[in-house]
Amino acid sequence: MAQILDPLPPEQSGTILCCYVNATSKIQVARITNIPNWYFERVVFPGQRLVFEAPREGQMEIHTGMMASAILSDTIPCIRLAINEHGTYESSNNSDVTIGSIHKNPLVQPINTKIEDTTKPLSVAGLASID
Q1: In the chain, what are the domain boundaries?
Q2: Name one Pfam family in it (predicted).
């Protein structure tokens, strides 16, 4: 099914490719509201990745869905969501410098699997009765 996208206004230059991941267990609505003459709003399901193009000065609002309502839970500058062609995130200071790829900086640290004897004798406190 084709999705109709609102193109960026022609006066917007300097667009960036961005990625947002819904890491929650709730449905979210992603909106960019600070760009005049442009409407951007998408539903992002739990675990879903949203890839989009936005102006560098865009601010993404994340609204988290509750029962019959939604709460503004975060506002993220689009420059912080920027990715380049190699799949790495761009730095907000210089687009030529990357923060680190998935292969270099794992998100999950290895688990300590060292097996050792952890059994120790129990100490029992003695109780005395005084008459």
Answers
A1: 19-81
A2: DUF1830
